[in-house]
Specification:
Length: about 220
């Protein structure tokens, strides 16, 4: 009896306490969306959930919009699937774990595509947003990429005029295997003349060689 009371029972209580703590941590991990210790593991988890093959990391970077009212993500990561590329945005939890890996854009084949990730509203002016322009470019002679980002209204027939009026233009730099990225841009949603029109965040991109010759143009309206 003394052996049970002074030897077995304390160890049994300790084992049950450890089990309760582990079950609590497991429940917390599930409630947070099963965050992972690295960005790559978080993307692998998202790939499994989407029934995608496990890819390899082609490029990655951080996202920081200090003047936004909220931030949708803290980092992005591009994964290669053979001739395809998927770009994910990820959120950081507690400064340690990575979770909520969201597939932002999927390029079915390497060619020339441009897009934006993590669009967030800016503080201050109404209808002003921050967006990070990116491109997937497999042109072997491409040395410089230039992108136009604009909220294009459905009443606007001239994209170049819309970019000049309320869009933004920037250069993209190579971030990894076929992946190019630019700085965060501030773009404003235009007011519709009739008050009832809509607009869409649109990216136009141009690729140049080392001598400045135009190699290709990405126009989403032409695809």
């Amino acid at each position: 009896m003394k052996r049970f009371r002074y030897y077995i029972l304390p160890r049994l209580c300790l084992a049950l306490s450890v089990l309760v703590v582990l079950l609590g941590l497991w429940a917390l991990w599930l409630s947070l969306g099963r965050p992972m210790p690295t960005r790559e593991l978080a993307c692998r988890q998202a790939e499994t959930a989407r029934l995608l093959p496990l890819g390899r990391t082609a490029a990655q970077g951080t996202i920081g919009y200090p003047e936004t009212t909220w931030r949708n993500a803290d980092a992005w990561l591009a994964r290669r699937y053979g001739d395809a590329v998927g770009v994910y945005s990820l959120s950081r939890l507690g400064g340690v774990l990575w979770g909520d890996a969201r597939l932002q854009f999927y390029v079915p084949e390497l060619d020339f595509y441009a897009f934006t990730i993590d669009v967030s509203m800016l503080r201050g002016p109404i209808n002003s947003y921050a967006a990070t322009p990116m491109a997937v470019c497999d042109l072997p002679d491409a040395a410089r990429l230039e992108a136009d980002v604009v909220w294009l209204g459905n009443w606007e027939d001239d994209p170049a005029a819309a970019v000049a009026a309320h869009g933004a233009t920037t250069e993209l730099t190579r971030a990894g295997d076929c992946v190019w990225v630019g700085p965060a841009l501030s773009v404003t949603v235009p007011d519709s003349p009739s008050g009832s029109g809509g607009s869409a965040l649109t990216v136009y991109c141009r690729a140049y060689d080392a001598e400045g010759n135009l190699l290709a143009v990405y126009d989403p309206d032409a695809r």
